Amino acid sequence: MTPDLEVSRDIAASPADVFAAITDITRMGEWSPECVRAEWNEGFSEPAVGAIFTGHNRNGDKEWTVPATIVELVDNERFFFDCIARDSVFAKWGYAIDATDEGCRVTEYWQDLRPESSHKRSTMISGVADRAAHNRAGMEATLERLAAAVE
Fold first, then answer.
1. Rounded distance, CA 45 to CA 25, Å?
2. What digits encode the pLDDT tens for the residues 58-72?
3. Confidence (pTM)
């Protein structure tokens, strides 16, 4: 994955504790300012490659849902998923966890795969005109809140 954005933060917690928090998608609303809730789709109840969940997103008065499929999962190290709209992957998100002497460094990744032709529609749905700037701020907030939850 070649990310459009990546944001890192050192967290004073074990890689296992951070991985457990990140991969419990039912907790995503605790740290993400945009994904206010997530749930496993029918037939799935835990993280595994191929597992599908739905994120419920909000930006101001705009609300939308996004199905996502886990595409990479390495215990205590990596959690990556594809977001899908109209049967196409429009974004890839991921978290990499690297052990440090004080705990771990968590890097959140985002790759924008939307075709240029969909940007106007995406802005209408989400209310976000500058997705990269919006996501950078959201990623920084997510990692800050994640750190507060696990430290």
1. 10
2. 999 999 899 999 999
3. 0.92
